Amino acid sequence: MKIALWIVFALLCALWTGAVLVSVELTGWLATTIASGQANDLLGAVGQWPVPAWVALWVDPVWLQELQAAWVGAIGWLGQSGPAFGSIVGWLIPMIWVVWSVVVLLLLLAAVAGHFMLGKLSKTAVGARNTA
After folding, report:
1. 24-33, pLDDT tens digit by residue?
2. CA dist., res. 3 & res. 1, Å (int)
């Protein structure tokens, strides 16, 4: 059981790390795009993105259109910020990694607590079996 606990911990850490890596790359790319003044091109591309057929099977197309509209609004707002957004990224990306480390630490603490709890439960079960 302890092995399963640590496998779940490793899997959750891997998924979390992958999500953070993608977020950092996307944030860096978005910052360079906006700082270079290409936000209008990006705005048009997001607004014209056709919904793939396989996505339409799983997600309501109306919801996707609302999501597209939200992205268009967010990119338009970020495009107005211009070079200021590039300076924000200077502390935003390290902040993402700080959040990553806090979450991994919390996962580790939960795994260690679970490891010790499983150890105590198995000792209690063995002790109860020996006294009976």
Report:
1. 887 777 777 7
2. 5
